[in-house]
TrEMBL record:
Residues spanning the membrane: 6-29, 56-75, 335-356
This protein's UniProt keywords: Membrane, Transmembrane, Transmembrane helix
Every VWFA domain range: 101-304
Organism name: Parachlamydia acanthamoebae (strain UV7)
Annotated protein name in UniProt: VWFA domain-containing protein
Pfam families found in the cross-reference section: VWA_2
SMART domains named among the record's database cross-references: VWA
Annotated SUPFAM superfamilies: vWA-like
């Protein structure tokens, strides 16, 4: 059974519309042949074997299928990720190198129901990003939190990516049955998570929200409370904590469905202020506007790998063999040969398929 199917070269999908060029070229060639045939005398037309319309359509269809199968092979599909047999994953702890744990904190407030990004709700988009990150954990453990008025731990740290992805899909709006949005409580969830970790482990927290905070305090007081909390985190865990905040939603925003305030619809839009303050304190703020969830996830993963590489370079006592042991890549089953085989099969049938029908004439 194929699972987690994805592509090494998805941009090749832009070649799929090229099949319409085959259709247009086939129609043009058919009309050209008819016009040429009309130039011959009727005697020559009677002697020549007519082209079979069914054969023409069949050969054209086979060429189109050949093109589609070839493009699919070029996209290099793969899946069924697994580790090599008898592979022992090195944690790096023997050499004093901290291992990483990830924490996903997703906004589940009512405003995440707004459908203003990539023709889907903010909640669906955020779930896709977290799901893509969870799919590529590569042996790391991760926990899942949801927050609205308060933060709730939905899954403890686990290396079971399948379980984590199922929990992500089951996230509900206003998880924890507390309405509103409190980004301070989301940061406190990060504080709680890293405080429970051993000293030899690092935490990479990914906070996804539209940035709207509904706590009933002034902006000045909110900024002060956040600054105090973030400064405390930076002082205690600066070398062990990285926070990526992801702003979900558009600047224009939209109306929150099924929510009224004094009989009026509530308009919601992305607010970068608090997310930027949180992200830039110990990591980076990323705006998820129209990029795909895969692009956002890959951006975060590449930043993590770059930071890991910088840490390795800064350790002069590390040997190359130890560094190689620390990098564990998943093995994937390649599937490009299947569409490639179909492409060759379709092309062979097209070449061998007769162009004209043979007529048996009865003797006079």
């Amino acid at each position: 059974m194929i699972k987690d199917l994805f592509f090494d070269f998805p941009l090749a999908a832009f070649l799929i519309p090229g099949v319409f060029l085959f259709v247009l070229a086939g129609m043009f060639l058919h009309r050209h042949r008819l016009s040429v045939m009309q130039q011959y005398s009727k005697i020559v037309q009677m002697v020549m074997l007519p082209r079979d319309p069914v054969s023409t359509w069949v050969k054209g269809t086979l060429l189109c299928l050949t093109w589609l199968a070839a493009v699919l092979a070029l996209m290099q599909p793969k899946g069924n990720s697994h580790y090599a047999p008898n592979t022992v994953l090195s944690t790096g702890q023997e050499e004093g190198i901290p291992t990483h744990q990830m924490q996903f904190i997703l906004d589940t407030s009512a405003s995440m129901q707004v459908k203003d990004i990539r023709n889907q709700t903010r909640s669906e988009y955020g779930k896709e990003i977290v799901d893509e990150l969870a799919r590529q954990l590569d042996g790391k453990s991760a926990s899942l939190w949801g927050f609205a008025g308060q933060a709730t731990r939905l899954s403890p740290a686990t290396m079971d990516a399948l379980f984590l992805r199922l929990m992500i899909r089951d996230l509900q709006i206003n998880e924890g049955n507390v309405t509103g949005t409190s980004l301070i409580n989301a940061v406190k969830a990060i504080q709680k998570e890293i405080s429970e970790l051993p000293q030899d482990r690092k935490l990479v927290a990914v906070l996804l929200s539209d940035g709207e905070d509904t706590e009933n305090i002034s902006a000045e007081e909110k900024a002060k409370n956040l600054r105090v909390l973030l400064d405390d985190l930076k002082t205690k865990f600066n070398d062990r904590l990285t926070i990526y905040t992801i702003g979900i939603g558009s600047r224009e925003g939209g109306e929150i469905p099924d929510v009224l305030e004094q009989g009026q619809r509530i308009h919601s839009k992305r607010d970068d202020t608090w997310l930027k303050q949180i992200g830039e304190s110990s990591g980076e703020y990323i705006i998820a506007d129209q990029e795909s969830s895969i692009e956002i996830a890959q951006d975060i993963l590449s930043k993590m790998k770059k930071k890991n590489l910088e840490e390795w370079i800064s350790k002069p006592n590390e040997t190359s063999s130890v560094k190689e042991d620390m990098v564990q890549s998943l093995i994937y089953t390649l599937y490009f040969q299947y569409p490639l085989a179909f492409a060759l099969l379709f092309l062979t049938i097209e070449i061998l398929f007769p162009i004209v029908r043979h007529q048996t004439r009865s003797p006079k």
